[in-house]
């Protein structure tokens, strides 16, 4: 933790070597973090346009919490021991974990010990399943992307997505058609 950093500050946490990290989190701090995440955190599965890969979409994973100032995001970085803190020009700072391995080794075990109790508990359950599917490569096929969209649908009800599910599906259909034409025998 530290003082607020200038806009655009980027902090990356090194992975601690201790496997007992979760046992070292005091109950009062762990329960406070779980409550804070229940109110301010989110589990997101954004789809980003991709031009140089096998599919026209890249599936990402993100557990994040935003706040004015870097103190609380810095505390989360200290508690989880993975992720990063980044700042925006308006003084908002984000703690985020995007690596599937970090999600499975740190974030999910944390919430097993300190469960979420609000609506985010359902989002976390779905996010875990999506993370498992991404780790197994399901996001690399059209059918896999469609399955992820279906799973993601009830998550993050209050958030705004850059692309609607309909836009993603339409782009996949267009891409599939152009791939079929490209692969057709001459």
- Mean pLDDT metric: 82
Could you describe the largest sheet, including whether it forms a barrel? 5 strands, antiparallel
Please write the string of helix (H) and strand (E) elements: EHEEEEHEEHHHH
Distance between the termini: 63 Å
Q: Taking Cα atoms only, what radius of gyration do you get, to the nearest Å?
A: 18 Å
Walk me through this protein's architecture.
By secondary structure, this protein is α+β, with helices and mostly antiparallel strands. 45% of the residues lie in helices and 16% in strands. The chain has six helices and seven strands, in the order βαββββαββαααα. It has helices spanning 27-40, 71-80, 100-113, 120-135, 142-152, 165-183, and strands spanning 10-12, 41-44, 47-49, 57-59, 62-68, 84-87, 92-97. The strands form two sheets. It has a five-stranded antiparallel β-sheet with strand order 1-6-7-5-2. The protein has a two-stranded antiparallel sheet with strand order 3-4. A hairpin with a 4-residue loop joins β6 and β7. α3 runs antiparallel to α4. It is globular. The termini are far apart. The relative contact order is 0.17.
Short description:
This protein is an alpha+beta fold and 186 residues long. The protein has helices at 27-40, 71-80, 100-113, 120-135, 142-152, 165-183; strands at 10-12, 41-44, 47-49, 57-59, 62-68, 84-87, 92-97. The protein is globular, with a radius of gyration of 18 Å.
């Amino acid at each position: 933790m530290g003082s607020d950093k200038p806009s655009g500050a980027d902090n990356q946490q090194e992975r601690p070597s201790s496997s007992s990290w979760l046992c070292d989190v005091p109950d009062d701090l762990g329960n406070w973090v779980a409550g804070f995440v229940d109110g301010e955190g989110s589990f997101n599965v954004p789809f980003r346009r991709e031009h140089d890969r096998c599919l026209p979409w890249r599936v990402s994973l993100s557990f994040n919490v935003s706040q004015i100032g870097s103190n609380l995001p810095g505390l989360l970085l200290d508690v989880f021991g993975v992720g990063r803190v980044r700042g925006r020009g308006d003084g908002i700072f984000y703690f985020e974990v995007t690596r599937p391995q970090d999600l499975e080794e740190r974030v999910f075990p944390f919430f097993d010990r300190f469960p979420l109790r609000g609506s985010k508990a359902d989002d976390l359950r779905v996010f875990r399943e999506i993370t498992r599917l991404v780790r197994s490569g399901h996001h690399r096929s059209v059918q896999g992307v469609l399955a992820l969209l279906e799973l993601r649908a009830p998550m993050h009800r209050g958030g705004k997505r850059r692309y609607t599910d309909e836009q993603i599906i339409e782009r996949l259909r267009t891409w599939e058609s152009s791939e079929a034409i490209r692969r057709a025998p001459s």
